[in-house]
Amino acid sequence: METEKRTQISAEQMDNRDLSEQIKEVTKDSHVRAENTELMLSFQRGQVTLPQYKLLLCSLYEIYQALEEELDRNSSHPAVAPIYFPAELARLKSIENDLEYFYGSDWREKIVVPTATLRYCHRLRQIGKENPEFLVAHAYTRYLGDLSGGQVLGRIAQKSMGLKSCEGLSFFAFPGVSSPNLFKQLYRSRMNSVELTAEERNGALEEAVRAFEFNIQVFDGLQKMLSVTGNEHQESSTNSKAVHSKTLPGTISPMIRMVLGLFVALATVMGLYAL
Ligand code: HEM
């Protein structure tokens, strides 16, 4: 009886807690996992390479395009309006500048992303249409991350890649935010003002865990791309749109298949003559 009462109280206390506290709590383990992905470890060790960073920018471009389009479209939705800060937070334009700096004016034709990025974007667009009240989870995961660890990562990246100026690093800069810490406080209070039913709140918390999971999968996908294709797509002027269309280990490229086909045909013809 006593235990039942205690469980009830803690469930109530849990419900009464602010969304910003709850979301931080439920994503704690995921944050540790994200920090420990190979890509994030390269950043933290000061070993991030230009191909890694360029490839990350490609995925961030697709992700922020989806996220910001959905936030814009739902900007007057009651669960989005309080956390809608395009002037302070929007990243798309900055990423476009960075991509142009590294890839040149035809950067749009050089974008390559792993399938994990496409899945992440698909989810963002889906919830933008079906459950805009969950966008807060995705906006929190990306923007508060960028304003937290992201700030340190930007400085490390500049050193690691030996970039002289801040060119190519505008993704990390938030000119509209004079104090990231104060802004994060404001953002948390706005998150806490969003009115959600218990069911919607649980959904948003689940979505935040999912958002971290998507990021982890994107980072892992990028590392796989780098280990499979090396720097080839970074340094050449390939026009491929998504790496999932590239040849991966375990598959036979169309060229090898054609050569094998010709070989078999030739052997068959020669066999017929021999008869
Ligand atoms: C090298 C990797 C990373 C490092 C070193 C790092 C570090 C940090 C630090 C120091 C904070 C501040 C914690 C606090 O104020 O209590 C933070 C907060 C945060 N990080 Fe990361 N982070 C990393 C990667 C990521 C990634 C990949 C994501 C998500 C995609 C992320 C999302 C967040 C979020 C949402 C917060 C805000 C937590 C809150 O105050 O509610 N971080 N991170």
From TrEMBL:
It catalyses: heme b + 3 reduced [NADPH--hemoprotein reductase] + 3 O2 = biliverdin IXalpha + CO + Fe(2+) + 3 oxidized [NADPH--hemoprotein reductase] + 3 H2O + H(+). GO terms for molecular function: heme binding; heme oxygenase (decyclizing) activity; metal ion binding. It is an enzyme of class 1 (oxidoreductase). Belongs to the heme oxygenase family. It is found in: Endoplasmic reticulum. It comes from the Eukaryota. Its EC number is 1.14.14.18. Heme b binds at residues 24, 31, 140, 188. Keywords: Endoplasmic reticulum, Heme, Iron, Membrane, Metal-binding, Oxidoreductase, Transmembrane, Transmembrane helix. This is Heme oxygenase. The chain crosses the membrane at residues 255-274.
